[in-house]
């Protein structure tokens, strides 16, 4: 895939975000049947569904790609349907509505709640830990790829490569604890009922409209001081995260297959912001000092199975700086990656 020097507009961005990898195409060729994407209307779901459709076409197989969501925002369904994605409205917590969804041998579980969790903890637990049980019963014979988060690990010392899949979870805050609950529910059904599951611990997906780099670039552009306390982070191009999710369908197993989906580098907030400032030709200032730990994940397993990310951090920094300078569209949803208390 030839990478452009910059990303022209949202249409160009979404075309790039839905470009399937060779591993994703191979997985769609190997797993037979339709694909249901639960929670398709989130930040990653629309381009993942489009990628599944494009991977299907590239693989030369016949299957339906069905996106399921409440579709609260206008135009979401139409946009997906224009790209050949079937859509269904459904409140997934409504068991009757969930039971009426079509059967499918392949399920991507993207539903969940993070932002706004503080003050509505009960709903967060319902979405993150109760809903998985409903989905496991409804799709008991399917392969399920379930999105989780690197937050379940908690903070880990910097300079050691990040948390690995075999490390014990140490979640901080109710959001992270509810996400560990999600994993444990999928694990229970996988072990007790031979349900084939792959759990993806994501940390952090990024595109031009959303992500850690977008947050940092905005602060640099506005000349806001950059807090260095959470001094390091991982970032992965959202298209690479989407592609790894589709590729993981071929690895769903009982007990569950677990994999970190993250960038290969432990990036420095100080160095990244200095580079963003250079690219945007602005000054940058910092406050605080880097803590000795951060939320970091080791992505060696994912790279061994799915290949290295197609877009490196330096390219993401350049794209993000250019997009910010041109006042490109933003989703207006800060990641709050700097939170060390687990409150979102």
Main attributes of the structure:
15 strands, alpha/beta, Rossmann fold
Describe this structure in words.
With 344 residues, this protein is an alpha/beta fold. It has one domain: Rossmann fold. It has 12 helices and 15 strands. The chain has helices at 10-17, 22-30, 45-59, 76-81, 95-99, 121-138, 173-193, 212-221, 238-247, 269-280, 300-306, 313-325; strands at 35-38, 65-69, 86-89, 106-109, 143-149, 156-157, 196-203, 205-206, 226-227, 232-233, 236-237, 257-262, 267-268, 286-287, 293-294. The strands form 5 sheets. A 7-stranded parallel β-sheet has the order 3-2-1-4-5-7-12, with helices on both faces. Helix 4 links the parallel strand 2 and strand 3. Helix 8 (212-221) packs across helix 10 (269-280). It is globular and about 55 Å long.
Secondary-structure blueprint of this entry?
Layout lengths: L9 H8 L4 H9 L4 E4 L6 H15 L5 E5 L6 H6 L4 E4 L5 H5 L6 E4 L11 H18 L4 E7 L6 E2 L15 H21 L2 E8 L1 E2 L5 H10 L4 E2 L4 E2 L2 E2 H10 L9 E6 L4 E2 H12 L5 E2 L5 E2 L5 H7 L6 H13 L19
Parallel strand pairs: 1-2, 1-4, 2-3, 4-5, 5-7, 7-12, 8-11, 9-14
Antiparallel strand pairs: 6-15, 10-13
Helix pairs in contact: 2-3, 2-9, 3-9, 6-7, 8-10, 8-12, 10-12
